[in-house]
């Protein structure tokens, strides 16, 4: 496609180029659902480890290309903004394109909390009693990051915890109603990284699901996941896609004008589970040289640990051409 685009020499040429990029981003929103369906349909014919390796490789390649495309669109939007000042120093800017110079962990968690609460009420009813989400630790910790990636990871982890607590409480049917146990979020700032721990009392992960926790070729629930994916025409893997479309504006999450990492997925039911949140979150975390780990205590709850590079000096964990050719 880019070979057909003429050399950019003027602002008008760049506008045409941006239109082409936006169209390309929108056209490729079908990639993740189709890939996932293909993985699930092939699970009986190929080794699950090979399928997951293929999916991880393709997703890393996709992330790198979308980051470049979305960064160019965001920089163009910034240039045309009325408040843009070409001479502004880096320290005076909150972000450079899609990259926020100082993502404050506490602020991101609070935004994602509001989003997750919206999802929970849409799923279980507006009268459902939600667990309180407490944030403690180094509340001023900040780091450079692409905000949409961080929101997706934190949003998925919080959503899983809230759903687990609510559903465990519903199954128990206590004779004496008591408030659901809170979800504890701890922010730990070290010299080179920030760790976010999310702890819940939702009963933990069943033992038979643990081997498939990070796999795209889900074991016991493959048929249900395949059916659910068939109802999802497009997927960008973003926090906004966890929303019901008419609730999107209430979550305080900003959406740009192009189909990007912040685009919503129209019409997705809030209770539609695709079984991809954790594997995709780990791909995002590891792409930026971080990590995502879960520790489950069956019968009690789960501790999730997200480690993020604080200095912003880590290279992306890119997929090489040799790696692509090998899968």
From TrEMBL:
Subcellular location: Mitochondrion matrix
Family matches, as Pfam families: BCDHK_Adom3, HATPase_c
GO biological process: regulation of glucose metabolic process
Domain Branched-chain alpha-ketoacid dehydrogenase kinase/Pyruvate dehydrogenase kinase N-terminal intervals: 2-99
Chief place of localization: mitochondrion
Gene3D superfamilies: Alpha-ketoacid/pyruvate dehydrogenase kinase, N-terminal domain (1.20.140.20), Histidine kinase-like ATPase, C-terminal domain (3.30.565.10)
Nucleotide-binding listed as a keyword: yes
EC code: 2.7.11.-
Family in the record: Belongs to the PDK/BCKDK protein kinase family.
Name of the protein in question: Protein-serine/threonine kinase
Organism of provenance: Colletotrichum sidae
Lineage: Eukaryota, Fungi, Dikarya, Ascomycota, Pezizomycotina
């Amino acid at each position: 496609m880019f070979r057909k685009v003429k050399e950019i020499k003027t602002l008008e040429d760049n506008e045409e180029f941006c239109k082409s990029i936006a169209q390309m981003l929108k056209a490729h929103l079908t990639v993740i659902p189709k890939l996932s369906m293909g993985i699930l349909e092939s699970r009986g014919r190929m080794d699950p480890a090979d399928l997951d390796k293929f999916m991880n490789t393709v997703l890393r390649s996709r992330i790198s290309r979308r980051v470049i495309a979305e960064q160019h669109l965001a920089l163009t939007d910034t240039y045309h903004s009325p408040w843009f000042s070409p001479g502004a120093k880096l320290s005076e800017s909150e972000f450079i394109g899609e990259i926020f110079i100082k993502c404050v962990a506490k602020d991101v968690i609070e935004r994602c909390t509001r989003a997750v609460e919206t999802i929970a009420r849409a799923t279980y009813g507006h009268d459902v009693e939600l667990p309180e989400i407490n944030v403690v630790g180094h509340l001023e910790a900040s780091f450079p990051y692409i905000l949409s990636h961080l929101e997706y990871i934190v949003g998925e982890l919080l959503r899983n915890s809230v759903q687990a607590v609510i559903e465990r409480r519903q199954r128990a049917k206590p004779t004496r109603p008591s408030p659901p146990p809170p979800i504890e979020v701890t922010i730990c700032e070290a010299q080179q990284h920030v760790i976010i721990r999310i702890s819940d009392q939702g009963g933990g992960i069943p033992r038979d699901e643990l081997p498939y926790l990070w796999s795209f070729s889900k074991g016991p629930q493959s048929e249900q996941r395949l059916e659910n994916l068939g109802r999802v025409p497009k997927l960008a893997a973003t926090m906004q896609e966890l929303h019901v479309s008419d609730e999107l504006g209430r979550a305080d999450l900003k959406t740009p004008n192009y189909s990007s990492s912040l685009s919503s997925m129209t019409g997705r039911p809030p209770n539609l589970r695709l079984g991809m949140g954790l594997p995709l979150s780990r791909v995002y975390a590891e792409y930026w040289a971080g990590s995502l780990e879960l520790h489950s205590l069956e019968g009690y709850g789960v501790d999730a640990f997200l480690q993020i590079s604080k200095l912003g000096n880590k290279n992306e964990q890119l997929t090489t051409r040799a790696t692509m050719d090998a899968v």
